[in-house]
Structure to design on (861 residues):
């Protein structure tokens, strides 16, 4: 078992954003969560990654219950996420930003005397090379393009050497070329580093091109879950997206 | 902002020269200036250490602490009470002057880090006031309003010149330690927390825990500042712990520039001499301090060094474009 | 430890709570809408107290003197609030909270010296105004009737604020601005003027509460920081930016203070801190507050 949510529910006052969702994410998969606006994708995401605390239900990661674990603990267990609104370090350089992920993951952050810059040089350059940001290593985070910022955030998350990488709308705001690059990167990392990827997306072409499994949410409830083929053919899904069966 | 290697080396060696020059000046100071100015210089050094401790939390971690004076005062009181009442020796008292504020910092900090931003700031003020209040009211133990007098350094440090060198050594060592901490992985972590606390949290860092550690470190250095000042001044009083006193490192940091390591030092040196001058003709220092703070906020954001750095960067950018 | 004594202390606690609410509500209102924690609120309270003393001393009117002084103090503080907001704070809304907090801190410094220069370091008080000069007997214990005036004023303020925030258009705007400032501006509501008037209102309440506290005999330097610390405890315990929270927080702090004084006067402040510490551990966002996430 890799990641599982059992009957997970999140209520904001009277609004039930996520309703009793039981779902399993298999190790090594590229797993997409889709659904129309307001379906609860982001909230589900936030429940898995620890941004929100569930109203009821459980989240389990590798047989360990993590439902009440704070976000930083989940990251230390191997779950890292990116944010829909790109979350990077505006006034740190690209290099320093990626380094931070490594410093945290390799648990040297309580080192008070060594020079931070001396750590993990190889690993940082490798990650920068993999995402294609090596030439901008000394540029400040807020000086790079939007697409590059998304790549930077990806690079930062890779610094934590995660097992489960959760990407919240990774191609949001990207041009078609940037989207292609991002998608091939994600695919590459999944294969080369054995990463399990969970992501939410609006762009269906992206979803169907790389996802191995797709789960569909509608108004907080899980209405379909399976291979891209199964989901494409599901009447329920068609009704929700098209208003009628195709 | 790409720096090629030789440019970086140049600016580093430039800075080393400046540092060496300053240290040289500070070493010959006692032979050049009068005893009166030497005392002010001692005060500037001690308060600069306090300002550096404050800036660890403000410039580097992004949190405003309005209670640093409480730890400064606790360090001073620890030394004063241990030396006059328990007749403990100077060096052990100094250690206590670091440990007591650190422990109190751990307790106070534990509560303060549950909140951020404005709330953290006012909480530190509140706890600072509580500590002041306890010291002020506990007449039997701390002497209350009277304070404690008659604290003397060991014989070989009794002369102002000798004690000046002692303060200078402690200041240089402490600055070096703080510099190392800031440039260590821990320092990088707290800077990342300031830059984007949420991102850092989701990289596996327990924000509250690291803020607490930084808080304790800042309290320890603030305490050390108080601990080395009291034997020089020969007395300590509750006024060391007030919110007014807490404002001085704040003022120094924003005047000199919180984004650079030397900013608070520069700011505090200016302030200490300016304060001494102002006290010469008026007792109304707070209003001057308030006006200064407003002036810096509106006309010199980033402080003096921040302003200079911006100008330097602007010129570099123009040069790069040509 | 008879019932009468306890009841008396309880009522004292209510009076203290009323006073705290008077001060803290201004702070809470300003913070809820402007998102600025006005550090100088305590200074306006202190200045209001000193001004009301001087006006009262000047008027020498046995019955109306106090009330006129209180109103004058409130109006002068409203004016000062207008100046502070217009000249200083307005330019800082686009800056971060550190600059805003530091600016209000600078004002605290300046007002503290102003008070020191104008009134010296004395401890001043106003005589209890008629008809609240005597005491009322609760279960054989004398209870200063002025306390009832304070409690009444507190209640009046609660009702006024409740009406203002929940029953008027301005209140709708206030509540909307508290949750989504940009949206309100986009709807064409002049945010700058809204902010100014809220700040003026908060300052006026602050000044008035300073005048109200003067007959308790505690007008002195340092009351600015004292009250800001207590107000902050109120807000931490009751919940950030929430008027019901401020009410509950005032009640709790008032009672802790009152019973704390009864047990060990020097430790009253410490008791308040202990309650605050407990709240910070179990529910950092306050009883009626909402967690950030």
């Amino acid at each position: 078992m890799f990641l599982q949510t059992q009957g997970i529910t999140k209520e904001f006052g009277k609004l039930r954003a996520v309703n009793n969702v039981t779902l399993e994410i298999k190790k090594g998969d590229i797993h997409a969560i889709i659904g129309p606006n307001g379906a609860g994708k982001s909230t589900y995401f936030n429940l898995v990654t620890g941004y929100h605390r569930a109203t009821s239900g459980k989240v389990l990661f590798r047989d360990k219950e993590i439902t009440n674990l704070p976000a930083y603990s989940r990251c230390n267990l191997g779950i890292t996420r990116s944010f829909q609104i790109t979350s990077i370090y505006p006034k740190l350089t690209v290099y320093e930003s990626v380094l931070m992920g490594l410093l945290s993951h390799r648990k040297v952050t309580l080192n008070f005397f060594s020079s931070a810059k001396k750590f993990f040089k190889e690993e940082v350059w490798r990650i920068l090379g993999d995402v294609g940001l090596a030439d901008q290593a000394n540029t400040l985070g807020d000086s790079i393009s939007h697409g590059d910022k998304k790549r930077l955030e990806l690079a930062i998350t890779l610094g934590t050497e995660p097992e489960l990488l959760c990407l919240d709308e990774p191609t949001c705001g990207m041009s078609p070329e940037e989207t292609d690059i991002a998608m091939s990167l994600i695919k590459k990392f999944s294969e080369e580093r054995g990463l399990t990827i969970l992501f939410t997306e609006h762009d269906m072409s992206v979803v169907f091109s790389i996802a191995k499994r797709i789960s569909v949410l509608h108004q907080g409830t899980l209405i379909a879950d399976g291979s891209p083929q199964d989901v494409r053919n599901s009447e329920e899904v068609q009704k929700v997206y098209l208003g009628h069966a195709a | 902002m790409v720096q090629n290697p030789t440019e970086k080396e140049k600016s580093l060696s430039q800075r080393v020269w400046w540092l060496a020059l300053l240290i040289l000046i500070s070493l010959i100071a006692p032979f050049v200036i009068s005893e009166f100015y030497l005392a002010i210089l001692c005060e500037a050094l001690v308060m600069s250490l306090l300002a550096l401790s404050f800036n660890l939390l403000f410039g580097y971690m992004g949190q405003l602490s309005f209670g640093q004076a409480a730890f400064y005062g606790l360090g001073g009181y620890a030394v004063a009470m241990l030396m006059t009442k328990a007749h403990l020796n100077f060096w052990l008292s100094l250690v206590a002057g670091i440990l007591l504020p650190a422990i109190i910092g751990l307790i106070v900090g534990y509560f303060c880090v549950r909140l951020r931003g404005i709330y953290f700031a006012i909480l530190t003020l509140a706890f600072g006031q509580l500590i002041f209040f306890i010291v002020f009211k506990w007449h039997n133990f701390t002497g209350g309003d009277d304070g404690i007098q008659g604290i003397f350094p060991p014989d070989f440090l009794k002369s102002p010149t000798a004690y000046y060198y002692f303060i200078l050594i402690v200041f240089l060592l402490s600055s070096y330690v703080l510099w190392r901490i800031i440039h260590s992985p821990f320092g990088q972590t707290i800077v990342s927390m300031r830059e984007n606390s949420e991102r850092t949290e989701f990289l596996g860092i327990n924000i509250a825990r690291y803020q607490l550690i930084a808080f304790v470190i800042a309290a320890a250095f603030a305490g050390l500042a108080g601990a080395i000042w009291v034997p020089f001044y020969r007395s300590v009083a509750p006024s060391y712990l007030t919110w007014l006193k807490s404002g001085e490192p704040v003022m120094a940091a924003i005047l000199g520039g919180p984004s650079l390591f030397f900013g608070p030092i520069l700011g505090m040196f200016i302030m200490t001499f300016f304060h001494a001058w102002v006290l010469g003709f008026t007792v109304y220092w707070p209003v001057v301090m308030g006006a200064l703070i407003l002036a810096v906020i509106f006309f010199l954001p980033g402080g003096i060094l921040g302003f200079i750095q911006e100008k330097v960067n602007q010129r570099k950018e123009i040069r790069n474009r040509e | 430890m008879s019932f009468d004594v306890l009841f008396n202390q309880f009522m004292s606690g209510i009076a203290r709570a009323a006073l705290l609410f008077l001060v803290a509500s201004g702070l809470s209102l300003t913070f809820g809408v402007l998102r600025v924690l006005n550090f100088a609120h305590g200074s306006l309270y202190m200045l209001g107290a000193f001004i009301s003393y001087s006006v009262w001393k000047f008027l020498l009117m046995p019955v109306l003197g106090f009330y006129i002084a209180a109103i004058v103090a409130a109006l002068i503080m409203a004016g000062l609030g207008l100046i502070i907001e217009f000249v200083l704070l307005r330019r800082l809304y686009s800056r971060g909270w550190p600059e805003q907090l530091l600016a209000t801190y600078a004002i605290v410094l300046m007002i503290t010296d102003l008070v020191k220069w104008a009134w010296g370091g004395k401890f001043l008080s106003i005589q209890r105004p008629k008809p609240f000069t005597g005491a009322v007997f609760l279960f054989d214990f004398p209870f200063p009737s002025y306390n009832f005036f304070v409690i009444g004023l507190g209640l009046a303020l609660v009702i006024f604020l409740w009406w203002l925030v929940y029953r008027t258009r301005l209140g709708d705007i206030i509540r909307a601005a508290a949750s989504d400032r940009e949206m309100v501006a986009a709807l064409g509501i002049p945010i700058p003027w809204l902010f100014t008037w809220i700040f003026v209102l908060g300052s006026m309440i602050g000044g008035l509460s300073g005048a109200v506290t003067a007959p308790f005999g505690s007008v002195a330097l340092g009351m600015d920081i004292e009250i800001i610390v207590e107000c902050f405890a109120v807000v931490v315990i009751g919940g950030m930016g929430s008027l019901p929270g401020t009410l509950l927080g005032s009640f709790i702090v008032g009672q802790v203070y009152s019973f704390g004084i009864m047990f060990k006067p020097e430790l009253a402040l410490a008791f308040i801190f202990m309650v605050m510490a407990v709240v910070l551990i179990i529910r950092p966002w306050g009883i009626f507050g909402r967690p950030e996430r």
Q: What stands out?
A: The CA atoms of residues 161 and 167 of chain C lie 9 Å apart. The interface with chain B takes residues 37, 39, 88, 91-92, 95, 97-99, 101-103, 105-110, 112-114, 116-117, 225-226, 228-229, 232-233, 236, 240, 266, 269-270, 273, 276-277, 280-281, 284 of chain C (CB under 8 Å). The beta strands of chain C are 135-138, 141-144.
